[in-house]
Write a structure and sequence with these properties.
263 residues, alpha/beta, Undecaprenyl pyrophosphate synthetase, globular
Length: 263
């Protein structure tokens, strides 16, 4: 301690609070990859891997909420996943529906707000109804915001934002020269939330697969060979420890960042 006593000083307590704030990402995004390979290694049908993946999601939500993560965004189904076999897609839609039904009350009880982003026009009507129902049930919650990206693609997200802005220009509501980065961002699916601080991709692949293309501009990346159904809170801690060791400069020099941090 600074004064040689056993009790922390006010400055040390402030420093400790700063370190905790600085090393826990406000927004954590995850590409949940490896469900199919997990099942194949066990000679199980692919849907068994997707069911195991749902269990992994359950294991992540509580620790993220407890450690102070504000937003957890999970890539559940990309716009490219429609190319998969029709039977697998049908089973995925049914699993999504049943998971929403089973988890709705738990989410509300744990003060978690659910939000689903992506083009839901291709979903079965009962799934769209279930999504609306759970979002309304949890919209007043003030804890962790759990975002599920389903039938989502980063290019789709930017395109729909551009289309909305073009419509406003055509209607005379705004001028083309008024289109700024902030204007584009405001029309993106996560325009009202902070950009991801850290993205984790499981399954050994090292690409972003058309996920949150705009929002990942300054995001830190963590790749792991662990397949998503095997991902545990211990793996999450490894990712967060890696994140805590990094210096986020956002275009500044390291000296500038340290100067601001020490101010």
């Amino acid at each position: 301690m600074a004064d040689g006593s056993s009790r922390p000083t006010d400055q040390e307590r402030d420093d400790d609070r700063y370190r905790k704030r600085a090393t826990i990402p406000r927004h954590l995004a995850i590409i949940m990859d490896g469900n199919g390979r997990w099942a194949k290694r066990r000679r199980l049908p692919r849907v068994a891997g997707h069911r195991a993946g749902v269990e992994a999601v359950r294991r992540m939500v509580v620790p993220c909420a407890q450690m102070g993560v504000e937003v957890l965004t999970l890539f559940a189904f990309s716009s490219e996943n429609w190319r998969r076999p029709k039977r697998e897609i049908a089973l995925l839609m049914e699993l999504f529906f049943t998971s929403l039904q089973e988890e709705a009350t738990k989410l509300s009880e744990n003060n978690v707000r659910l939000r689903v982003i992506g083009d839901d026009s291709a979903f079965p009507s009962k799934l769209r109804g279930s999504i609306d129902e759970v979002q309304k049930l949890t919209q007043g919650n003030s804890g962790l915001t759990l975002v599920i990206a389903a039938n989502y693609g980063g290019r789709w997200d930017i395109t729909q934002a551009a289309r909305a802005l073009a419509s406003q220009v055509a209607a005379g509501v705004m001028r083309a020269e008024d289109i700024t980065e902030a204007a584009v961002e405001a029309h993106l699916s996560l325009g009202d939330l902070p950009d991801p601080d850290l993205i984790i991709r499981t399954g050994g692949e090292q690409r972003i697969s058309n996920y949150l293309l705009w929002q990942l501009a300054y995001t830190e990346f963590f790749f792991t060979d662990s397949l998503w159904p095997d991902f545990t809170p211990a793996h999450l801690e490894m990712a967060l420890n890696s994140y805590a060791m990094r210096q986020r400069r956002f275009g500044k020099t390291g000296e500038q960042v340290e100067c601001v941090r020490g101010a």
